[in-house]
Amino acid sequence: MRQPDEIAPEATPDPDDEDSTAKQAAGRRSTLVSVAVNLGLTAAQVAAGVLAGSQALIADAIHSLSDLISDFVVLFASHHSQKGPDATHQYGHQRFENAASLVLGLLLLAVGVGMLWNAVLKLEHPEVIQPVKLIALWVALGALAAKELLFRYMLAVAERVRSSMLVANAWHARSDAASSLVVALGITGNVFGYRLLDPVAALIVGLMVTRMGWQFGWHALHDLMDRSVDEETVRAIHQTMQDTPGVRGVHDVKTRRMGDMILVDVHLEVDALASVRDGHDIALEARRRVMLRRDVLNVMTHVDPVDVTA
């Protein structure tokens, strides 16, 4: 019995050098901007938090410090993910981005749990809560404005270069802006005599950071475990294959993430009376059409012969 022909992938062409370089440069530039902003904010928030006696502002400073660490993780991953295939990584190094997103998620989770712990301890002993000085409020409002502007800048860059890792880092900055808003409200309440609001604000910030860290980490973990892409993308790939001349049917379309790229495995049905060469050419044409998508890294096609009745 003749076995179905397995079509091995041809050598995948290197990504467009200009696009790849632009993506790496944009990612590095936005991350360096984030480093500069978070470095300044961390120093200002720690100084003002200690001087004004605000636990919430110090918690926000710790959050900003975690951003510095995450920024360096992103810089490291961005550099390595742009490397092409080699003998031991024959599909490239794009999963450095997934690994970096997982590290960012774990970092946020750890920071959030630590903030929750400190806030709960303070709430258990309200008698030690001191009134917060007004300078803390001005610093919190300044941090809020800076982080919101940073988020909008980083998200615009991430969407332009289509990097999930940079999107994750941008939303990390948005979580900072939200936490700074909560901190500002808590400090305002403390200034007006409601002293519990400062540690309550720190508690809310901790919950926000913990939730964000869980979401990023869980999403990245599933990508590293070869989670398939969304159904809409799978349907589009299926239809592209189905519309290829000579393809009688398509089944067993399987996808998985490789960084921001997609790997595809698919079975193509062709006329059993077609020659091996014709079946091969049909499969190559179907693969070529799918590879026109900028988010597809490689397609493995398997040809199944089917009887075509009149």
TrEMBL record:
Keyword Ribosomal protein: no
Residue ranges annotated for the Cation efflux protein transmembrane domain, each copy included: 32-225
UniProt domain Cation efflux protein cytoplasmic: residue ranges: 230-305
Region Disordered, annotated ranges: 1-26
Topology in membrane: Multi-pass membrane protein
Keywords for the protein's UniProt record, in alphabetical order: Membrane, Transmembrane, Transmembrane helix, Transport
Broad class of the protein's primary localization: membrane
TM stretches of this protein: 99-120, 135-155
Subcellular localization(s) per the UniProt record: Membrane
PANTHER family: MITOCHONDRIAL METAL TRANSPORTER 1-RELATED
Family: Belongs to the cation diffusion facilitator (CDF) transporter (TC 2.A.4) family.
Protein name stated in the entry: Magnetosome protein MamB
Taxonomic source organism: Ralstonia condita
Gene coding for it: mamB
